[in-house]
User: What shape does this take?
Amino acid sequence: MTEGEVTGTRSLESFVDGDGRFVPHSRAQEIDANAAATGRVGEVVESSTTTLIAEARRLHHAPDFGAFVRVESDGRDLIGVVHNASTQSSEPNRRPMAYGKTEAELRAEQPQIFELLRTQFEVFVLGYLHDDSMVHLFPPQPARIHSFVFPCPVEQVLAVTEDPQFLRSLLEATGLPTDELLLATLRHALKGRADEAGETKAGQYLVRMGAELSRLLRDDYDRLSSLVRRITSWGQV
Amino acid sequence: MGKQNGNGHIISTRHRRGRVGVVTRGSLVEGLEMKLDAERNVEDMKAGKFVVIEGDKNDFFSMVTDMRLDATNSEILLHPPDRSDELLRQVLAGTGTYNIVSLRPMLMMPKDPMSRDFDDGPRPVKAIPSHFSLVQEAEEEDVTRIFGKEGDAEGKYFSIGSPLDMDTQVCIDMVRFAERSNGIFGKTGTGKSFLTRLVLSGLIHYDRAVNLIFDMHNEYGWKAMKESSGKQTSSFVKGLKQLFGDRVAIFSLDPKSTRARGIQPDHEVYISFDQIAVEDIAPLQDELKLNPTAVESAYLVYAIYKDAWLRTLLSLEGPDVEEFAGEIGAHAGSLVALHRKLKRLENFPFMVKKMEGADCVDRIMEHLDAGINVVLEFGQQTSMLCYLLVANVLARRIHETYVKKSERFYATQRPEDKPRQLMITIEEAHKFLNPSAAKQTIFGTIAREMRKYYVSLLIVDQRPSGIDDEVLSQIGTRITALLNDEKDIAAVLTGVNGTEGLRSVLASLDSKQQALVLGHAVPMPVVIKTREYGEEFYKAMGAESVQDADTRREQAEQERELLFGPE
Assistant: This one.
């Protein structure tokens, strides 16, 4: 049974679930069924030592900006943060065009156009896990293509962010929206802590990370104070 | 607890609680700098606080002398965080902004108990700790190790207070204290009299020296007023006589005043004109406004009439003086002036033409020989002139006696001939020991060289800058309450090395109950909170506790029965 045949024999209703949402099918459907079981969010499609690009399991469902992800590759767990996500046509020569309709209408009338779109996200590699503890070094080998990408569970986020070294790694990376990324990762780290250890611990953690930032940005007080003010403006974590 | 060092020795690793920072820079000469830990509040680092630097091989006992706020980036100082920016301030604390505390290492002590120097105890600092040595708050054990503890077998140590923010004792070594002349300085109202009373109590209690106290303001013998700040009610504290009973005798120059205060003086003091030598007049130049030739004229009179010179001179009436000047070949104008000015002496009630009964100096000597401390009260005779004159006359003669006694002891070398160590307490010492007077008064001599004759001074003064440098440099132990004047501070620190840090400490003492102790009797300078002079102290000094009348009567009754049997 080939993909084309399946598509051809499907009734229009089968593309939409009970809530009127588009239900993926065929290759996507199979992938999705497996993925749902393992909890993976994407698959590596481009890889280098410092960054990798993964395709999201579901359209428009890349992990949050600044979220920590884990890539299983070569029996090693690589850890990175999501620093960019994009959605585009899967065919380089075909660009999506405007239809003047809402997404729901489009999904009902022309579900196939969503099949031609894909969401990709970029991950900046921070290091890898060794016996469940974080090694702040680039992995010896880049992630393999088609490795799967998983979101980090809270305990892993805590382990990875315990050492303020990740701040330095992010600050030193080039070509990233560094400040935004710093704030976003810190927010993830903080949220995990607030949930696990309580507000007081989270507050102490914040001061500790702030102190590290202050050391790293000792020549750039403006940048530091703007970062810290933005953190303060979150108010309650 | 211990761990092995490289040589297989056990190094004692004490578990301290109070880490305050790490040493970052410094030199032996200029002292060390410590970066304060971010979680420490700089306001807890008071000048004079006592800390221990843990070097690799030695512990360095040090004093906090200065603090500084600093920042890595001048931008921070130009745009300081807003008051509401609590997080930014917390973040910057210890990173962008930090505190530097200056430390002055005072003593070092090997950490390794197996080391050869360990048993020698703390020694002067000859090295500095390495980079990033930990700085800890001093603990009771450290203070005891350095200053000793009251109640030791030899009875050497006498507690005079506690270090800042600590409850443990700081002791002075009474043996060393009595050996040399000492000074108690401080602005008026900073507790000099209390400190003096405390130190005198220690000397008497441990019997380290017999004291002769020139008590200008009548505050040592019997009760004295306690200055209670803020409150309207002021209370009285016990004097030495009340604490030590028979071991203290009160002599009074003004028995009427002494009795009026409800005290029976043990002896009354009279001085005859014949006891006054020209040397006693010379230091009064300032007070009497004598000109230099006046003293020379006095010597001319002395040359002829010897001891009776003053009596003879004062017996003349105004017009006769010029004639008298002609007779002895003195300058008339000068002698007239001298005569006119010395006439003031006749007004003192304690001055008598001819001594009746025993000489008061002999009396005082008898007491001192018997180990009884003498407090000489001036009553209402509080004029500086009177004080200077009496102190000079008495001290000069006591000094002569002591010189003779010491010479006899040197000749015989018999222990029973050894004179008792005498300490003479003088107030307003700069009047006796200012650069011009120090060369003339007997106190200058005592301060400079009397150590070998078993006489030393306890100088109580509020204006140390007025005291001759040569005398100051000979002072063994200095106990200094707050001083503000730069000159006074410099004077107190004369003859002490490494004074830079101590200056700031001195100027920042509290105005009450705090003092800096430095010199011969303490191993290192230390700021103390003065020991409370109250019931507990009285008890420690062995004074009878305050009993109500009934208990006393009961006790007397019991003693009577013991003596004479039941009625």
